[in-house]
What does this fold into?
Amino acid sequence: MKRMSQAFNNCLTHIKKEEELYMYQKKRKSLITMILTLTLVMGCLTGCGGGGSKGDGQSADAGGSDKKPVTLEIIRWGGGLPAQDDDIIKAEILKRLNVNIELVGYDDISDYINTVNTRIATGDYPDMFWVNQELLRNYSKKGLVMDLTDVYQNELSTVKDWLGDSLDMGVVDGKTYGIPVPISFEYCMSFIREDWLNHLGLSIPTNLDELYDVAVAFTNDDPDGNGKNDTFALTGNNGLRAFSAIFGAYGVALPTNSGALPSIYVKDGNLVSTVTDPDIKDAILEAKKFVDAGVIDPELFGNTGSQPVQDKAFQGKVGMTRIEWSLFAKDIHIEQAKAVNPDASWKPMGTIGGGNGKELDGEWQIGTPVHMFAIPATLSQSPEKKEALFKVLNYLSTEEGNRLVAYGPEGTYHQVNADGEVELINNDLWKKSDLQAYLYNYQFTGRGDESKYLIIRNPMSRDVIEFAAAQPRIKCLNGFVDFPEGFVASDAATFAEEELIKFIYGRRPIEEYDEYVKTLKEVYSYQSYLDAAGETLQSMGYIK
It folds into this structure.
């Protein structure tokens, strides 16, 4: 009785304060006041220690139908968002979770980084924000973002299960700070003109000798039958990437992008990089054979972006390409190629043998997320917002929640058939050019099986997608490694790439290769980076 009396007195005090507040704000009709008072009394008797059951309290909280939604501000790099009132994903999350997301996207990455740096410097934190690995490292070392190491074991266990080993992408100094948005699929692959092969009586090459013969024939034997010497064999975007199949025959990984550091990976149980791989010299000499034969696109290193590669391929100037499949083999791109030449037939080309037996199709940077998010450390001071954000992240890491942000609301944009498979509906809606970019903005924890997603989105390209997913890749680990003090990555990367090109094109003799590596290690501090990589990757279990 004493506890009941105390609880009741507490309730009366609470009621008095509430009545004073209502009167201060504005007058209320007497009936509404009575109802509010009665509600407060009943709520206190059951929820303020007055003998109500735990189950009743949880049920009332879970219902939440009359509870004011929690508003979360999330900012990111990426455009394509509609007006707030037209945001169907925002509306669905509000309806399902009672969380109001105010998502702001920035098209220009420089503008975004300047904005987020300014807001953090002034203490004006969003509730979650996009980061790259450099930003995550900087902010985590300053204690500005939330340490999620234990959080993933508890409040974000659904996200943890969803992302699996990809969580390693968000680790800095042994602690997890990031929410990675991984892509479980390497988009880049090789394509070849099948109709040219048929015209010349050749087959898709499977080893280096066959690849060389095809390359020479594509360049010199009029594969398109127009009576002109106006074709060449091989091109690609992002610099050295065009040589990926040749280097892959030796198990050597070339950087995916021009200006990137040499790739780091495990080979025969040892940690190596592109430049220290024991097979690199043989790979260089093999690539040089193709250069010397004049079969390489003479404008290769001027192919900035993918458009020049697409143009040369679709216009019938080249017979083999190294490019992202999504920029080449989607329905729209097939139509573009057919519009120029209805007889053009591009087919995916797999791994090439004949080197040292590795037969690997280029690199896959498994430690580098496409996108990543961080939560400011200050959000711990707002328990309601933190709970709401965790609720959203966990929900988007379920099959139901992920379908929402991957394919749009069920019944309008997609349906689940009797076999549990997703089918897109309403083709007119899906033809909107900005729809995919819009949905991607809400994929805060990725979209699961990437190849499955791609097939659903591009059913006509199923064969190409499955082919790409099946290719064995060199798993590169650069994204896991922090830059050591004094190491200027951009300078080292530029020097490494420029000199590799010189060796491949015969502008520097292979006899100077060891001197080149020595200069890279000592003058550009690359050895310190290799040492840091060894320490980090050993602690993560990638090497013994």
